């Protein structure tokens, strides 16, 4: 957009804070066209105090938000865009990451424990041991989740048991618990001077303290984990005004964001789904960032019989019903690329993988099961280990690169099969976004293995867009319509299947055979590392989602009164 001597008037604008595991971004969209006008990104540092521990600094996370706001406002001013037209701000965040802070001082009491952290393995084992029959699904009828290190309740329990400052603050009624969304909203709406302590249903549903039927914190669940309910944030819908920006830090040199309502909040995967506008039956989307997540939207929660989780997809308004999701996870793309680059050294950058695989165009019968720390959905088999089979003297690194890309597609197929069995909703196409979508060979392989089209939108920032849409559509803001007829058409590129179904089925059957070879490889008995600690590689808990790619399968099923937007 060319600069001019006068401010460019674009109508209402909506901003989004996108706080992820590795970076924070602030983006501004045109509410009428969904066009991204400007954004800024800041990387976030992670610390690894011990094997399996992953932490981030809550203050650094907050400061990164302020910096992104400042820089984005400056860029908008350079474009002669009037910042006063920003009418709302949405928040989307890394899910499950757990924080506790002092409501009187506003200071964090410990680093944020990141979602992929494994320190709570002993906590999980202790909790499972006290369930009838040592059943990890003992709470699933209320939470939709297994007892696992992945979710927030066990992280909070660990903090209360192991951090004196947290335990003392809980006893003296000064502690506040929250996921990243709660921390940011509380700080941005005033912090210790009246900040709003809240979360939304999508983030709450990932804690194991939230009843997905009543849509509120469950006293029995809190008693089970021995967590006082007074430290929990208030649960709100994903689209309503939570509070106004009042922090003095939100005053940009190029204009003030003070007084703007924060009116949208969604966990990152739910936000990406809204941003993809996947509201029709038989649609699917894949965010290739961290783990594969598959979601099928339903009006009522449905418990999976095929290794999937049940979670809240979104609730777009206080008076709107919640939509639910079946979700699955596998550990694949990102971990495979890093392994080929860092461990084997056959590529220097992730972009080289496509060139290497494309140079041969086949795996030549080589199959790669990347079960580095066990198999996840739909198997949930922690004893499995990675395997490469079908090797011959002819096999070279290019065939291995091709097999690695195929592994992404085969594992996608396995979860989609499980989803179809649980939901009965036919998948007609897969919508994709995220870093891995730049690999065109992978996109084509995905279409070939699934035997359905794969659609890549031209605008990749769908996670932030979803948060902006929820914020702009909130009652009291109402600058963004979510009615299907009002949604902007998304331009995209479509990858059609190019092999016949018989060949796809043959390759998939060979993959399944390779998976069986990977089973029952490692003992699940804990092995001490000599310091009295258990190695993370000796017992992989259900629900650990190792870095991979993210996929959400949606089939927004319009039944009975349908799922209103």
Automatic annotation (TrEMBL):
Its main location: cytoplasm. GO terms for cellular component: mitochondrial outer membrane. Residues 300-474 form the Carbohydrate kinase FGGY C-terminal domain. GO terms for molecular function: ATP binding; glycerol kinase activity. Its EC number is 2.7.1.30. It comes from the Eukaryota. Keywords: ATP-binding, Cytoplasm, Glycerol metabolism, Kinase, Membrane, Mitochondrion, Mitochondrion outer membrane, Nucleotide-binding, Transferase. It is found in: Cytoplasm; Mitochondrion outer membrane. The keyword Mitochondrion applies. Residues 14-275 form the Carbohydrate kinase FGGY N-terminal domain. Pathway: Polyol metabolism; glycerol degradation via glycerol kinase pathway; sn-glycerol 3-phosphate from glycerol: step 1/1. Signal peptide: none annotated. The keyword Glycoprotein does not apply. It is an enzyme of class 2 (transferase). One of its GO terms (biological process) is glycerol-3-phosphate biosynthetic process. Belongs to the FGGY kinase family. This is glycerol kinase.
């Amino acid at each position: 957009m060319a600069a001019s001597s006068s401010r460019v008037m674009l109508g209402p604008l909506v901003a989004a804070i996108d706080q992820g595991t590795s970076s924070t971004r602030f983006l501004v969209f045109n509410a009428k066209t969904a066009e991204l006008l400007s954004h800024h990104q800041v990387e976030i540092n992670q610390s690894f105090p011990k094997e399996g521990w992953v932490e981030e600094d809550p203050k650094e996370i907050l400061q990164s938000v302020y910096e992104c706001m400042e820089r984005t406002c400056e860029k908008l001013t350079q474009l002669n865009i009037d910042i006063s037209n920003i009418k709302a701000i949405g928040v989307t965040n890394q899910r499950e990451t757990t924080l506790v802070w002092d409501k009187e001082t506003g200071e964090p009491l410990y680093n944020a424990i990141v979602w992929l952290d494994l320190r709570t393995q002993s906590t999980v084992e202790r909790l499972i041991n006290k369930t009838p029959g040592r059943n990890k699904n003992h709470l699933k009828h209320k939470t939709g989740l297994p007892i696992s290190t992945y979710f927030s309740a066990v992280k909070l329990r660990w903090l209360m048991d192991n951090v004196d400052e947290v335990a003392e603050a809980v006893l003296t009624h000064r502690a506040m618990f929250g996921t990243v969304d709660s921390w940011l909203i509380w700080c941005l709406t005033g912090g210790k001077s009246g900040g709003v302590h809240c979360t939304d249903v999508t983030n709450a549903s990932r804690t194991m303290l939230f009843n997905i039927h009543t849509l509120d914190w469950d006293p029995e669940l809190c008693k089970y984990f021995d967590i006082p309910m007074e430290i929990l944030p208030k649960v709100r819908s994903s689209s309503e005004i939570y509070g106004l920006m009042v922090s003095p830090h939100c005053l940009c040199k190029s204009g003030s964001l003070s007084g703007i309502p924060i009116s949208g909040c969604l966990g990152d995967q739910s936000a990406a789904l809204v941003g993809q506008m996947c509201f029709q039956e038989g649609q699917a989307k894949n965010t290739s960032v961290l783990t594969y997540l598959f979601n099928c939207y339903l009006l009522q929660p449905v418990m999976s019989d095929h290794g999937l989780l049940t979670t809240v997809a979104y609730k777009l308004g206080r008076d709107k019903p919640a939509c639910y999701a079946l979700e699955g996870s596998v550990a694949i793309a990102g971990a495979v690329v890093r392994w080929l680059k860092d461990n084997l050294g056959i590529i220097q950058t992730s972009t080289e993988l496509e060139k290497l695989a494309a140079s041969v165009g086949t795996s030549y019968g080589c199959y790669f099961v990347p079960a580095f720390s066990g198999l996840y959905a739909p198997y949930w088999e922690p004893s499995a280990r990675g395997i490469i089979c079908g090797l011959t003297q002819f096999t070279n690194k290019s065939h291995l690169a091709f097999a690695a890309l195929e592994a992404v597609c085969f594992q996608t197929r396995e979860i989609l099969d499980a989803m179809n069995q649980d939901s009965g909703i036919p998948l007609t196409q897969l919508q994709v976004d995220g870093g891995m979508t730049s690999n065109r060979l992978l996109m084509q392989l995905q279409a070939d293995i699934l035997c359905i089209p794969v659609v890549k939108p031209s605008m990749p920032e769908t996670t932030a867009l979803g948060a902006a849409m929820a914020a702009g559509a909130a009652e009291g803001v109402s600058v963004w319509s979510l009615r299907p007829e009002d949604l902007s058409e998304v331009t995209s590129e479509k990858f059609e299947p190019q092999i016949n179904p018989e060949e796809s089925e043959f390759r998939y059957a060979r993959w399944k055979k390779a998976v069986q070879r990977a089973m029952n490889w490692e003992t699940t008995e804990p092995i001490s590392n000599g310091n009295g600690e258990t190695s993370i590689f000796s017992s992989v808990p259900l629900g650990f989602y190792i870095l991979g790619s993210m996929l959400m399968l949606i089939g927004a099923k319009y039944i009975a009164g349908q799922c209103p937007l």
